[in-house]
Amino acid sequence: MPHAAYAERILRFVGARGYTPKQLHELAEAMGIAENEHGDFHAACKALMKTGRIVLGSRQAVTLPAPAGRIVGVFRGNSRGFGFVIPDTPNAHGDLFVPAQGTGGALTGDTVEARVARRGQRGGKMLYEGRIVAVLKRGRSRFVGELRREVGRWFVVPHGNVLHVPIVVGDPGARDAHSGDQVVVEIAQYPDEEHLEARGVIVKVLGPAGEPAVDARSIIEQYQLPGEFEATVLDDARRVAAAYDPKRAADDREDLRKLTIITIDPPDARDFDDAISISKTSSGLWELGVHIADVSHFVREGGPLDEEAKARATSVYLPRTVIPMLPEVLSNGVCSLQERQPRLTKSVFCTYDRRGSVKAARLANTIIQSTRRLTYQQVTEILSGKAGRTSAKIVALLKQAEQLAQTIRGRRIREGMLVLDLPEAEFVYDDHGAVTDVVPADRGFSHTLIEMFMVEANEAVARLLEGKGVPFLRRIHDQPRDLTLDDLRRFIGALGHRPAGSPALRNRPGRADLQALLEQVRGQPVAYAVNLAVLRSMQQAEYSPLPVGHYALASDSYCHFTSPIRRYPDLTVHRLVDAYVRGGFDSPKGRRGVATVEDLVQLGGQCSTNERRAEAAERELRLVLTLRLLETRLGDTFEGVVTGVANVGVFVQLDRLLVDGLLRFNGLPDDWWEVDTRLGSVVGERTGHRITIGDRLTVSLARIHIPTRQLDLALVRPLLKAKVEAITRASGHERGPKRPTGRSRSSAEAPRSGRARRPRRSGSAPSRPARRKAK
Predict the structure, then answer these.
(1) Containing H/E element for 11?
(2) CA 236 and chain centroid, separation
(3) Percentage of the chain with pLDDT > 70?
(4) CA distances from 291 to 254, 332, 562, 735 (A)
(5) Which of 307, 390, 488, 767 has CA atoms 20 to 30 A from the CA of 494?
(6) Can you tell me the distance from the alpha carbon of 344 to that of 293, in angstroms, rounded to the nearest whole number?
(7) Structural domains in the chain?
(8) 203: nearest Cα among 142, 139, 138, 140
(9) What three-state secondary structure class fits 343?
């Protein structure tokens, strides 16, 4: 690996939250550096020390330098006024806390300069805080909100958690906007210490607030998601689609059109980019064929279509709305593996023994013709014995697929794959697109079946490319850091759960310990809390050329190959596969399409950023639609589970709806509530009453405020009374006289006491059910 690649990996590891200073040999071991790589590793460390990007502290341990007197970085604000500066150049302290009085009018996403000051020590560690002295670049100038008129003034209430003050606007009549409309505002004057309000101009009217289509348009504008394709891109797509000739294209491809091949997708899917086939070899081994739409045949590198796909990086899947990465003439047309249509594919063939171990793998350019398009529900019914009129060969294929997928899953679990059991939900809509209900998502084995096959294909491609020594865009998922594992260990200890015979949980748990823990709590009331805690201990998966591996999948080499219609990283891998199949990388022509590590680092960062933006937009729209539904049910009672604690109260996720609401401290029994964010609990100082993440409560809907995405809950007191009385008896506490209600004190540093949000799940638990097919 080049020194530059080592340097980036070292900085990411040392700069990660929870890193504890380590000597060089300890750092190499923690990062999994092989013995034959130690020379390059030490050379990279010396180069970083020479430039001051890392330093040797006490015990000659590697750490980042202390923050300088001033730092430049990106500001992230909190709804309660304070915020953090994420420094452009990592330092030993990490993100810089900025109190509410020091934000200087900065908004989330702004690039700022902050003055750094010491504010004492805690636990032997120096604490710092900052004051923003200059906003160097605004992160955004347009905001979405609801137009209102009060006391003779027009203003817009911004949506989301970036801008928390109203935006005063002039006469909206020029845009034919009315009170209650959702609008897009261009900021002319930002709020600062002198001006508590912002001022702006309405540039677009989206429609009346509350309409499903308007909510979707609002989220698209809020997250600055891509719009319609430009004419040059559409012309390029139409040209390559019109030129598609399956007879001519099949000349240099392996012809699989007579093979029984099926697709399995959600019922509303239109872009079918993967298909499977299964057969038995003469020696009784399985041969799995995973056939992926050959998008690289149509999207030529460097053309208008490719540049647009690269800029988008991913399709965005919002409820009832899709923003595709490629124009539909390709994504839903000639690239889609439609039933009985000849389609170009890139195929991975893996041969398995009876224990599900890969004995051989090969890649090929192919042409297929899907025999049958199936949905997940249809597959579930067929596997349960309800085949109906399904042909015998399709039924036989699915039975073999089920057996092979179960065998592969068993092997991967033995190798250390983590399987989290976290619920998912689906919306039910009326004829107008409004949400009328939320129901549990399908958890049938048909989802796991496809997921296992896609994971195997991705891994096979990564290993074959790695064997050729070419850089490629991997899907990496680094191991959890020390601090997150310490938090997990403390949390599990507070719950009283530890896998029998697993002392590693008291030190540094590995995958086997986490597997044992998840299995131990399976089916128990505390299972959700433990699965959520394990998920929170994980890092986010991302795209990078660095050979970090995929922790949750227990894979040393992994990439994304199976969804090139909707993910640009897959398209880059397809181009390498094409060069591999057509002769390898030894010739100048074969090396021409191989990118440098530096270029792939930049591309991977862009793709990771766009992926997270798409997921955040989907999460927020789902939240908005759920809150719209609940607006009609204020006062209703729900069961829920505690998912987080903060200085303002306890967060409770409502069963089935999977939405978090806030139960404020002033709604809890009279006490002084001590907040421990590390253990995920609040404790009554006077009574000893404890509420912990994972506890079940009965609550009612008290208030909904859609602009700030807030759901306030009220406690149904009889349930809590029974709970705390049981705790009191068990702990030996007696209830004393009443003291003022609604008070809380945090045992953690203020910056750590914000809302404990549920992190995104991408890349952490490949085998859990998903709303869309996870590939």
Answers:
(1) helix 3-14
(2) 32
(3) 87
(4) 12, 17, 8, 66
(5) 767
(6) 6
(7) 3-63 (1.10.10), 70-137 (2.40.50.140), 142-209 (2.40.50.700), 231-475+549-620 (no CATH), 479-538 (no CATH), 634-752 (2.40.50.140)
(8) 142
(9) strand
Per DSSP (E only), the strands in 248-391 are: 254-255, 262-265, 274-280, 286-293, 316-318, 321-323, 342-352, 358-369, 372-375
* Tens digits of residue pLDDT in 272-296: 999 999 998 888 899 999 999 999 9
Are the C-beta atoms of 641 and 656 separated by less than 8 Å?
Answer: no
Which residues have C-beta within 8 Å of that of residue 661, sequence separation ≥ 6?
640, 651, 652, 653, 654, 699, 701, 711, 712, 713
Q: How many CB atoms lie within 10 A of CB 220?
A: 20
- Burial class (CB within 10 angstroms; exposed 0-12, middle 13-18, buried 19+) of 486: middle
Between CA 118 and CA 73 the distance in angstroms is: 18
Kindly report whether the global pTM for this prediction surpasses the value 0.85: no
The helix/strand/coil state of 741 is coil
Separation of alpha carbons 468 and 601, rounded Å: 19
| Residue 423 one-letter amino acid | P
Q: Is 120 left (phi over 0), alpha (psi -120 to 50) or beta?
A: left
pLDDT (tens digit, 9 = 90+) per residue, 47-100?
A: 898 888 888 887 788 888 877 788 888 998 876 678 898 887 777 667 788 988
Tokens matching residue 117: 């000051």
Encoded amino acid at 331, one letter:
S
**CA distance linking residue 489 with residue 502, whole number of Å:** 12
State how far the Cα of 228 lies from the Cα of 213, in Å rounded to an integer.
16
Which SS3 state, helix, strand or coil, does residue 286 take?
strand
Residues 6+ apart with CB under 8 A from 360: 350, 351
Quote the tokens at residue 314.
């991913």
Closest CA to 82 of 711, 646, 663: 646
**Do 630 and 771 form a contact (C-beta atoms < 8 A)?**
no
Q: How many whole angstroms separate alpha carbon 592 and alpha carbon 431?
A: 52
**Cα separation, 484 vs 578, whole angstroms:** 41
For residue 667, the Cα-to-chain-centroid distance in whole angstroms is 33
Question: Where are the extended beta strands (E) located within 281-421?
Answer: 286-293, 316-318, 321-323, 342-352, 358-369, 372-375
The DSSP string of 17-74 is TT---B-HHHHHHHTT--GGGHHHHHHHHHHHHHTTSSEE-GGG-EEPPPP-SEEEEE
In DSSP notation, 179-192 reads TTEEEEEEEEE---
The angle subtended at Cα 573 by Cα 287 and Cα 363, nearest 5°, is: 25
Q: What is the pLDDT of residues 304-344, one digit of tens each?
A: 999 999 999 999 999 999 999 999 999 999 999 999 999 99
Cβ neighbours, 10 Å, residue 255: 13
Contact 584, 590 (CB under 8 A): yes
What does the alpha-carbon distance between residue 308 and residue 326 come to, in Å, rounded to a whole number?
8
Instruction: Please answer whether residues 680 and 756 qualify as being in contact, where contact means their C-beta atoms are separated by less than 8 angstroms.
Output: yes
For residue 568, what pLDDT is reported? Answer: 98
Distance CA(476)–CA(569), nearest Å, equals 12
How far apart CA 275 and CA 263 sit, in angstroms, is 4
Left (φ > 0), alpha (ψ -120 to 50) or beta: where does 269 sit?
Answer: beta
Residue 241, H or E segment? helix 231-242
The C-alpha atoms of residue 64 and residue 648 are separated, in whole angstroms, by 33
Three-state SS at 701: strand
For residue 25, the Cα-to-chain-centroid distance in whole angstroms is 33
Cα separation, 271 vs 322, in Å, equals 11
The amino acid occupying position 90 is P
